[in-house]
Batch of 4 targets.
Target 1
Amino acid sequence: MNQKGVLTTWNDAKGFGFITPEGGGERVFAHIRSFAGRGRPVSNRKVVYRVVRDDQGRPRAGGFQYAGAARIGANVAPGVWVAGTFVLGFFAILAGLLYLHYLPVSILAAYGVVSLLLFVMYWIDKRAAQRGAQRTAEKTLHIFELCCGWPGALLAQQIFRHKTRKGSYQFVFWLAVLANLGALGWLLVAPGAISWRQQLGFDLSTLIQPLIW
């Protein structure tokens, strides 16, 4: 059963501290591995936790996290807002081009559908990582990112805190984003892509060609 208390002390360098129960009593040991919130714990914050026992039978906090308004603020990391703003801005640009008839609905739909699919794939992979189950291959995720799914991947990474700390993965991810945006830009304005644009029934290059050529 969850209990309430205050994280009265916290040694961030060592990754542990102690929780004082709300109703008083003996302090409970808390380790960073048991922290269920985002970021790092901070002392003198109200928390909810459950009491578990270690191998020697000593009480310790299991799955502790901030309580009340502090929990809401801590669970929405700054990266979520940045990713959300970036993705929203990107789709707003696509929607504007669609409204002006400079973009076919199929491209906007491709980004929306594949992003949603990849968002779900990230969630499934995160759950698998937590359970120690079979994971989704990274190259599979990268292929979907390259094929218009990177907006969903960017949001999923921040919301699920998944794949954000692996430098090699992030490097390939952003390469996929740049490659996808480069391909989109080529399709929209490059002279060599005019036959593709004609088949899809749009041609943004007629609007901006005088500005760049």
Target 2
Amino acid sequence: MGAILRLAEVSVAFTGAEGIHPVLQELDLEIARGEWVSLVGRNGSGKSTLGRVLAGLLPVSRGTVERADGRVQLVFQNPDAQIVGETVWEDVCFGLENLAVPPEEMPKRVESALGLVGLLPKKDAEVTTLSGGQKQLLAVAGCLAMEAETLVFDEATSMLDPESRARLLQVAEALHRAGRTVLWITQWMDEVAHAERVVALEAGRVVFDGTPEAFFYDGGVEGASDSVGASRAEDSVLEKRTPCEVLGFAPPYVVQVARALERRGVALRTRPLLPAQLGAVVR
């Protein structure tokens, strides 16, 4: 699999009343075609800025961004910020009209996109009647109708109820299985468990890049500050903390249970991330 997105020495800085504020600093990153990457980090780490750079919505201050063939589309945190049509059908058509898609092609593309996210039965519904989760699915449909190869979800579940969060995740997983590239920006650690790869940012730099298993189970993160403010000299156990913990996040409940079992001497065949995996690894 070749890289569909490549960043080389990318920096982004904003000028404010207090001077220049760096957000991303000399960042190198490659994302392979068809990969599912979870991007995590504390507030202000640069996650959303990176998502906008990858989607082509924000210019970089320094460095280069390469996008292979295929459109990159961003699903925002607030679904109301990205919907313009009065009805479900009209909203999906809006993006196609901006791309100057021939009118005779639109119905097929809109129906296909709405079918993939489960909103085809609501194609004539007014957008104001949709739930928050349905609005996010509508935003995804708009991206799919525009034939997006890569979908960037910028904390797209943060304003949703648990049922809607699960539904959006299911749709993203189905799209990923169909070959789409997914960049999933989140602070929900149970969502990170669905990824193939985790990239963690701290102060605009990559401080972890590896598997979810390593993120939740392995020892410390080079270059990341301790979330509780203790120095390494003051906290001898810091080296044993996982990248997830060093960055100030609590691991998913499944990981907490698995690690508690290990401390009690229970041997686990693998390191589970999802509920279905937990029962299968206990000997």
Target 3
Amino acid sequence: MNYIGTRGFNEHRTFSGALLDGLAPDGGLYVPQTWPTPDFDLKSASAGGYGDLTVKLLNLFGVNVLGDHAVKAAAQRTEDAFLRNGEVPLTKLDDNLWLLELYHGPTHAFKDMAMQMMAPLTDAALAQRGKKLTLVTATSGDTGAAAVRAFAGSEHVKLVVFHPLGRVSPVQRLQMTTVQADNVLNVGVEGDFDDCQRIVKALLSEPVLKQQGLISSVNSINWGRLLGQVPYYLAAAAHSGADKPEFVVPTGNFGDAFAGWVARKIGGNVGHLHAAVNRNDALNQAINNGKYVRRQATETASVSMDVQAPSNFERLVYEASGRDADVTRTLFNDFAATGDVTLPADLQAALKAEVSASTVSEETTKATIKLAYEKYGQVICPHTAVALAAALERRSDAPQIVLSTAHPAKFPAFVTEALGFEPKAPDAITDLYGLTETLTEMPADVAAAVTTVRSFIEWID
């Protein structure tokens, strides 16, 4: 299994190379050179043990270049983060409507599944090469917390996390800043998530940093991150008993939704994919109106979705265009330069055939949290509410699985406002309050980021 880039890079990387690169050298995103056909019974594997399913999928996508031990260790950590009381965390809300709880890992967010998998795989890849790696990541809250928990204390990895200052929930901030590890640097950026993401992409191609060793990212631009999210689509569909259920995904950077696309592409029992976004709706506008426009992200209760330039949209464009690297490269170069592109009509139609999208308002988000409690007895987070609202708007006789991506206690203020009582928090969250925080603040400036990261690398070396 080799990997190529969405913008034409075709020198082929193994999984290990794609994992450690993060971005392809030309700025594109890695995808498999060809989509594999499972050499095992995918239906049976999806209905079986989650760890075994994950091992089979990792091997299918070439992760076995890192050795059987690394694959099994990654699968075990993923399984530990996913299951609820030893079972697939699927809750039936109504006829043909399920909630898939993806927040049973160490930071109580769905990012744990992929991040817990990435850590042992990254360590194995670095050990093979005798190298160390600087990882940089942008986060709107949950990615950073999951990365800090997964990589803290690693002997091979130095981790720098950029989050928009004052624009993550207090719990999300504490989950990052209270972890005291010499190999972790938390940075608050005076800007929004898109500023953080722009900084990370610039750092990945910064010559000064590359001179100091390998540098990569654990954002969902990294194929290894995205791959860790594929198994739960297959497991959830199998355990629902439904034929080709629709998945409704609360969407920020579009990585989770694209993981569902991958599950469907390899022949999984996955039906239509619907991306639910908040008022930061660049993705929805692109798919439904053909205009992809970068605007300043606005703050919402579903903070992890406050994204106006979703990176993984590039992978969808590449696939919908018939894997046309020229079309993909031109579109995203123009978008980077102008922030405003019009999609060709045939490309827009192809995108709509792959994924649909809709926007959910703050008012509807709050009302849906209340409805979920009163009608279904479920306390849900704002991100989950965005997806559930979109699912209920689309309701038909077709089976639907709504992804629930974070524990409601990570967003207590908004949930309390909606319900009139505070969601019960697990000990892992309540124990954060009162701990010492370590945080570096900086402007939304690439030069400042280079200086900050370089100083950290030099200090830790």
Target 4
Amino acid sequence: MSGLIGSATPLAEAYDLALVDLDGVAYRGHLPIEHAAPSLTAARAGGMRLVFVTNNASREPEEVAAQLTGLDIPADADEVMTAAQACAALLRTRLQPGAKVLVVGGKGLVTAVQAAGFEVVSSADDAPDAVAQGYAPHLAWEDLAEAAYAVGRGAWHVASNLDLSLPTARGLAPGNGALVGAVTAATGVTPSSAGKPGPGMFRLAAERAGARAPLVIGDRLDTDLAGARAAGFPGLHVLTGVSTARDAVLAVPGERPSFLGADLRALLEPHPAPVPDGAGWSCGEARVVVTDGVVRPVAGEGIDLVRAACAAAWGAADEGRPVTEVPELI
């Protein structure tokens, strides 16, 4: 199902594991996000397990857990799944233990690749079997050039993720995908990707936790929610990060969330499902119609209005009537 669904019970009761994105969901840069800590604490107290899943491959799980704990979200290292761990798992699908891997990234990626049984090398002249590339703030032209030399000589290029941007406290900065793009431009070789929006990291985290009913929570449609769709897991899109309410209304089928919330308090609430209502769609007291490619609110406000707008716009798009104009909704 590619549309919003409903839950008569709070999501924290309906699902046994939350796969929680970090930047834009649990925190923003080094700053807390309002309602994140108390909502996650309440969900955990009610029996929902948490695994924090991040496309950032530069830091160790212990560092991530310490940051979360410092923001009043207690976490252990084994509750963190990084793109570095997913990258190492992807390498193991093709390479034998002991294979040489040139790591271009932070210490988190180095640790994960070593823990997977590979020999980490620092030069293309070491004849690496693969290049593992992840974001780190210290990366320089020399590092990207070394990766390009190795890939050009036949090494398998594996990216921890392909995020073009990275949210920081000051705004959006170039992400790992932008740096990977430099190597791709130099070599003409398209890399494999371990992180979101691929399904591998979510499936690995859910399997490790022994989850029966996992729920993905994210702020980016093109990574978090697309990854949830790819993994076959329902996704909750919260409006505290990159993708806006307007973005959700215009989402393509492969990036549509199953649930929508203003923030992480949505974990603790039931979710009404939008329903068709004559020429429009309703959710709670909200009602929206689409005419001539324009989303037109008829009644209601708040998150239910966004839900109704998503249902109306997605329905129109799927019928071949794409939406071209979306008003301010929330």
